[in-house]
Amino acid sequence: MPPTRATFDVFFRQVPDQGSFVVAAGLQQVVQALNNFHFDEDDLAYLRSLDLYNERFLTMLRTIKLDCTVQAVPEGLPVFPREPLMTVTGPIAQAQMLETLILNILNHQSLIATKSRRINFAAAGRPVMEFGARRAQGPDSAVYGTRAAVIGGCGSTSNVLAAKMFGIPAAGTMAHSWVESFNSELDAFRAWARMYPDNSALLVDTYDVLGSGVPHAITVFKELAAAGHQPVGIRIDSGDITALAKAARAMLDAAGFPEAKITASNALNEQIITSLLQESAPIDNFGVGEELITSSSAPVLSGVYKLAAIEQDGQVVPKMKLSASKAKVTLPGRKQVYRLYRPGAHTAFADVIALADEAVAGQPLTAVNSDPLSTHKEVTLTDYEARPLLQSVTSAASVDDVFAIQHRSQTWLRELPAPVLRLVNPDTYHVYLAPQLAQLQAGLLRELRGN
């Protein structure tokens, strides 16, 4: 008898930082992990030593070849609570084994991509460099967190390994220890300029930003200019950054270096960046580390992997989890998600979750709000174009350039209503259940509760 096949959905219920949406990321790493899914003899020996598994099961693991199909939203797409961002269909034992692996990858990268989107939104078009490797929770989190940060909008990284792996520009400036290791700050700046005459970004806050750092930087910039080189700028990593940046800007301009950039760092996040720019701080670039790479204000995306259907006797049987909490009741059946646009328009106004074989093609739909706690329950949707979001993923999926993903993500973000993009008190973007899915869920609720 062939093994029972099942379908699992990956989705989340809450958005970090009280935001409106999550930027999906990690699909390429999921595909790579599934392509390499296997058990070595050492793995099997360890499992055997636990005395928990019989030899038939261990033999199955030795010869396992995944027979699972995957559908997923493309990386960089903004997705909303309760929408499946990935579905896995296959033999139930195989699909169940993939739960932790898939959630680990998608939860982490989507979390960091979402935080990066917030920080880059706050930066209002100014470049943001990812500076977080030293504060990440381990090497893999640093490397793949950098990838996710670029999907969310960052343009460069101080993580050289991530730069190599994903084709990201490597960026950074000198360390305080470099300055401290010389007899004087000016000697340190000159030594740096000799090594990097066309990339001299000088760290000016080791001792005294305005008393020595900026004056010494100006001295070196004049020497570089006299030799035919164009100085890059300065970085401020401590103190009252607004006041220091304003004073430094005036000094640089007066010395004849209006093109020299000012970079700010030092535990920045979207709130601090917003405040700096509201105070008219003349900052050209931001270097953001720990607050980005750990998403420290909201360090967990609680994505889940829930059974949605099984196959019995050739029939797809929908499955649903009940709970005392309405928010934790799941959506049954195999599904598709649609983004709705007005004909000829480029701004989306709602999403619809439907059964996979349910028609959503512009005809009027009496849909139900997917949020079980919403008081705005039912709406009739008319005059729309529906674009499916879940796409089939093959084991030979091409590895997209991370900046191509970033570009697509920014295009999709521009398609959302502006109030949904706000960092504070974003407007609600409605996600609805198509009629057949809503009826199926309601019927299963009655059946499972014995009503």
TrEMBL record:
Q: What is this protein called?
A: Nicotinate phosphoribosyltransferase
Taking the record's annotation, the residue ranges forming a coiled coil are: none
Q: Where is the Nicotinate phosphoribosyltransferase C-terminal domain?
A: 334-441
Q: Name one Pfam family in it.
A: NAPRTase
The chemistry this enzyme catalyses reads: 5-phospho-alpha-D-ribose 1-diphosphate + nicotinate + ATP + H2O = nicotinate beta-D-ribonucleotide + ADP + phosphate + diphosphate
Report the GO terms under cellular component. Answer: cytosol
- SUPFAM superfamilies from the xrefs? Nicotinate/Quinolinate PRTase C-terminal domain-like, Nicotinate/Quinolinate PRTase N-terminal domain-like
Keyword Glycosyltransferase carried by entry: yes
Q: Where is the signal peptide?
A: none
- What family is this protein classified in? Belongs to the NAPRTase family.
Residue ranges occupied by any Nicotinate phosphoribosyltransferase N-terminal domain in the UniProt entry: 4-107
Q: Which organism is it from?
A: Lacticaseibacillus thailandensis DSM 22698 = JCM 13996
PTM note: Transiently phosphorylated on a His residue during the reaction cycle. Phosphorylation strongly increases the affinity for substrates and increases the rate of nicotinate D-ribonucleotide production. Dephosphorylation regenerates the low-affinity form of the enzyme, leading to product release.
Stretches assigned to the Nicotinate/nicotinamide phosphoribosyltransferase domain:
128-318
Pathway the protein takes part in: Cofactor biosynthesis; NAD(+) biosynthesis; nicotinate D-ribonucleotide from nicotinate: step 1/1
State its role: Catalyzes the first step in the biosynthesis of NAD from nicotinic acid, the ATP-dependent synthesis of beta-nicotinate D-ribonucleotide from nicotinate and 5-phospho-D-ribose 1-phosphate.
Q: What is its EC number?
A: 6.3.4.21
Q: Which GO terms describe its biological process?
A: NAD+ biosynthetic process via the salvage pathway
Q: Which domain of life is it from?
A: Bacteria
Organismal lineage:
Bacteria, Bacillati, Bacillota, Bacilli, Lactobacillales
Q: Which GO terms describe its molecular function?
A: nicotinamide phosphoribosyltransferase activity; nicotinate phosphoribosyltransferase activity
